[in-house]
Amino acid sequence: MSTPTLDQQLQRDVLDALARDTKLRAGEVAVSVRDGVATLSGIVRTYGEKCEALEVALHCHGVNAVADEVKVRVPAGFGPSDSDMAEGLLRTLTEELRIPAGDVHITVQNGWVTLAGQVARRDQCDAAERAARRLLGFTGVSNLIRTVGAASRAAQPQTAAAPPNDTAPASPTP
Q1: What is the pTM (predicted TM-score) of this model?
Q2: pLDDT (tens digit, 9 = 90+) per residue, 73-124?
Q3: What domains are there in the chain, each with its CATH number?
Q4: Which end of the chain is more exposed for a tag (fewer CB within 10 A), N or C?
């Protein structure tokens, strides 16, 4: 069990580490610490900044866990529209990753990307999520893609059901 003095020192250490990180803007992320658990809160402009802040805190000596309360809010006019994001991601999936059109269904709402459908290999599922995370304006992802083997896939009827519109976003994973 930590003492208030140790928690205060750990809080200062995390804040100092965040301030030294050149990928982050000073003062965007607040830190509180209790019993070795650092809680990060605040608003950042990109998902990459959020992940960077979490990573910095996790690497501070004495931090045993990090609670993520950081929100991503892309300023108006800063990022692309949801339509632009969906089109760009679809192009990446089909042209660069060679995932056939229609295998993955993409929904983008306020920067939150939902991926659904099925692919033949696990690495395709992972690559699709990584591609979504690189989008400008990205705020989070729900990856609902299923992986099915080539043999079982040929035997399954092909359906093109779109994901539901009212799905609640899951917590983003860094």
Answers
A1: 0.61
A2: 877 777 788 999 999 999 999 999 999 999 999 999 988 999 999 999 999 9
A3: 4-72 (3.30.1340.30), 82-155 (3.30.1340.30)
A4: N
